[in-house]
Amino acid sequence: AVDTNLCTHDHQVGQTGLTVAPRLYLAVAASGAIQHVAGMSGAGTVAVINNDPNARFFEECDIGLVADASQAVPELIAKLSASSKQ
After folding, report:
1. pTM recorded for the entire structure
2. What is the SS3 assignment for 31-80?
3. Which residues are 46's β-sheet partners?
4. What is the per-residue pLDDT across 13-55, written as a single tens digit (0 to 9) for each?
């Protein structure tokens, strides 16, 4: 997101950026470079969506989905929205 100017560097998670420790960390289409993992290592549960089954994040996550994020995320949002209405 920082590299494509969607947000500024001060929002970047990683060894040279922010350190975060949320209860749930959702990484979408992120490789899981060691610098990034260092910035979120305090997270409770780590869930990953990535189309590369060899992405390093799959070694670090609690829950992983090998899928195209542009297809998986809208489906996930739809399922979460439907379940919240029940």
Report:
1. 0.77
2. CCCHHHHHHCCCCCEEEEEECCCCCCHHHHCCEEEECCHHHHHHHHHHHH
3. 25
4. 777 777 888 999 998 988 788 888 888 888 999 999 999 999 9
Cα 22 to Cα 51, 70, 82: the distances in Å are: 24, 24, 25
Residues 60 and 30: beta-carbon distance below 8 Å: no
Asked whether 71 and 77 are in contact (CB, 8 A), the reply is: no
The Cβ of residue 76 has, within 10 Å, a number of other Cβ atoms equal to 17
Residue 53 CA to residue 15 CA, distance in Å, equals 24
